[in-house]
TrEMBL record:
Pathway: Amino-acid biosynthesis; L-valine biosynthesis; L-valine from pyruvate: step 1/4; Amino-acid biosynthesis; L-isoleucine biosynthesis; L-isoleucine from 2-oxobutanoate: step 1/4. Its EC number is 2.2.1.6. Pfam families: TPP_enzyme_C, TPP_enzyme_M, TPP_enzyme_N. The lineage of its organism: Bacteria, Bacillati, Bacillota, Clostridia, Lachnospirales. This is Acetolactate synthase. Belongs to the TPP enzyme family. InterPro entries: Acetolactate_synth_lsu (IPR012846), AHAS_TPP (IPR039368), DHS-like_NAD/FAD-binding_dom (IPR029035), THDP-binding (IPR029061), Thiamin_PyroP_enz_cen_dom (IPR012000), Thiamin_PyroP_enz_TPP-bd_dom (IPR012001), TPP_enz (IPR045229), TPP_enzyme_TPP-bd (IPR011766). It comes from Blautia faecis.
Length: 572
């Protein structure tokens, strides 16, 4: 058989795996791979302006398409710039395959130029990582990488490619199948355990479903809604699980956790059976562990054995893919609704509805409500901060909409590049990015990518001149000492002991225009609708809408630090 270089085999492998886009940034150790990509037309190369943006874009592409996101970066700093994005994807179970260039084998370990042990650095934040030491192993390792990334609990895989290995000639054959002795993901559902769980649910007087991100990841939304409607059991979600059932569904209560709805938190605290699906029970949803769902028997379906009983001890564990388990459940369940329980939940909703304090000034909810009204179909990508929590509370996520955010890691700077990746994977769907003025600046260089790729993103910047979420904690718990959160602070404010501050920088509208994008600034409620209508007219370039928000706006409810789900601050 004809022999080909490792570089050619990599490009062949990408085609065999059905890769449509690769998010890449070049360098000395990957220049030969770039050259091979140049010679073909099947895989489109997207060139973001920073490797961190690149991996976030691949991440959102994967989340919104169900495909594996693929990255290519060079060695050294190119590889280390992936670290935050790999950790983001690892926390949120996103399938990525990331190829990093590496110096030639004889230089590894010698402190060569742009050499780092990227496999060692990322071992704890990837599902699998390996340096290819032999050319004959290259095809098998790439095939295994895609298989590992997309099966079981999805996650990021890193393949480190020494330059001399990739230049070496070898077999042109790319494997058709995978057989990894130590990796056999579970593909079945233990029917005995599932029936035991259903029997427990049927006997409950106060049953409750807790839907996590695993339902969205496995695309089990439709079958989950079917199970919910058959049982009549109400639903709370984690933030990552929002959209597991339409947010306008009568059995949906709300999100639970640190900024959860009062009724949702109270439902968890008072239920007698908590049937949870696809959640890690992290600290942001549990509050004090020993007082989480204190009266409940807990059932937990999760694809990852390690996630079961790690934080919360469960009574009935079921290791399975959410979609497979729910499909089986649908065959056995019947109506378990409790009028008394549902009435109690409705009374909590009426007692403390999820609303923001009325404000004459422009409010984040005015903006989110307008998105709800104007977009029947959309992908909403958030950054991290107050705006993220507000979107998770007030954005209507129905079958035509998808909510994408960095959940487990809470990565500021995710929003803009995430929007780029989401739009590239969904060119026919509106993509709305919602960010704070702090997070937006962390990857603002991606205007160049969005403009050159002709992506008509709608970028909403909630500008309150502060790092709002940290400021909220400082206001509530640190005596209003706003240390390191005022984004106008600097030499002038230090020189005048906080008496004077310069004008806010940057001017987001001018910055957008400098890249060839459109910019709109909104001060008042009555300008919001027109701003979105104007943005929708721009079909070839992104539009940034800067909304001037009151710095005093807060996100409520909020669980007190170290408190239980019932220790809610409702307002102040």
């Amino acid at each position: 058989m004809k022999q080909i270089s490792g570089n050619k085999l990599l490009v062949k492998a990408l085609k065999e795996e059905g890769v449509e886009y690769i998010f890449g940034y070049p360098g000395a150790c990957t220049i030969d791979i770039s050259d091979e990509l140049y010679k073909q037309d099947d895989v489109t190369v997207i060139l973001p302006r920073h490797e961190q943006a690149l991996v976030h874009a691949a991440d959102a592409y994967a989340r919104t398409t169900g495909k594996v996101g693929v990255c290519l970066v060079t060695s050294g700093p190119g590889a280390t710039n992936l670290v935050t994005g790999l950790a983001t994807a690892n926390y949120d179970s996103v399938p990525l395959v990331c190829f990093t260039g590496q110096v030639a084998r004889h230089l590894i370990g010698n402190d060569a130029f742009q050499e780092v042990d990227i496999v060692g650095i990322t071992r704890s934040i990837t599902k699998y990582g390996v340096t290819v030491r032999n050319r004959e192993d290259l095809g098998r390792i790439i095939k295994e990488a895609f298989y590992i990334a997309r099966t079981g609990r999805p996650g990021p895989v890193l393949i480190d490619l020494p330059k001399d290995v990739m230049a070496e000639l070898g077999s042109a054959e790319y494997p058709k199948s995978v057989n990894i002795r130590g990796y056999k993901p579970n593909t079945s559902v233990h029917i005995g355990q599932l029936k035991r769980a259903i029997k427990t649910l049927s006997k409950a007087k106060k049953p409750l479903f807790l839907a996590g991100g695993g339902i969205n990841i496995s695309h089990a939304n439709k079958i989950f809604q079917e199970v919910v409607e058959k049982t009549g059991v109400p639903v709370v979600t984690t933030i990552m699980g929002r959209g597991a059932i339409p947010t306008n569904h009568p059995l949906f209560i709300g999100n639970l956790g640190m900024h959860g709805a009062y009724a949702a938190n109270m439902a968890v605290s008072n239920c007698d059976v908590l049937f949870s699906i696809g959640t890690r029970f992290n600290d942001r949803i549990t509050g004090k562990l020993h007082e989480f769902a204190p009266n409940a028997q807990i059932i937990h379906i999760d694809i990852d054995t390690a996630s079961i009983s790690r934080n919360i001890q469960v009574d009935i564990p079921i290791v399975a893919d959410a979609k497979d388990a729910l499909a089986k459940m649908s065959e056995y369940v019947s109506d378990y609704a409790s009028k008394k329980w549902n009435s109690e939940i409705n009374s909590w909703k009426q007692e403390h509805p999820l609303v923001m304090r009325p404000n004459d000034r422009l409010s984040p909810v005015d903006i989110i409500n307008q998105i709800n009204c104007q977009f029947e179909e959309a992908i909403i990508v958030t950054d991290v901060g107050q705006h993220q929590m507000l979107v998770s509370q007030y954005a209507e996520i129905t079958p035509g909409k998808q909510l994408v955010m960095s959940g487990g890691l809470g990565t500021m700077g995710y929003g803009f590049p995430g929007g780029v990746g989401a739009k590239i994977g969904n060119l026919d769907k509106p993509v709305i990015v919602i960010s704070g003025d702090g997070g937006m600046q962390m990857n603002i260089q991606e205007f160049a990518t969005a403009v050159l790729e002709e992506l008509p993103l709608i970028l909403c910047v909630f500008n309150n001149e502060y790092l709002g979420m940290v400021r909220q904690w400082q206001k509530l718990f640190y005596g209003k000492r706003y240390s390191m959160t005022n984004l106008r602070s600097g030499a002038l404010s230090r020189r005048t002991n906080g008496e004077e501050y310069p004008k806010y920088t940057p001017d987001f509208v001018k910055l957008a225009e400098s890249y060839g994008a459109k910019g709109i600034r909104v001060f008042n409620k009555n300008e919001v609708a027109a701003a979105f209508e104007e943005a929708k007219k721009n079909t070839k370039v992104p539009t940034l809408i800067e909304f001037i928000i009151d710095p005093e706006e807060m996100v409520y409810p909020m669980v007190k630090p170290g408190g239980t789900l019932e220790d809610l601050i409702m307002d102040c």
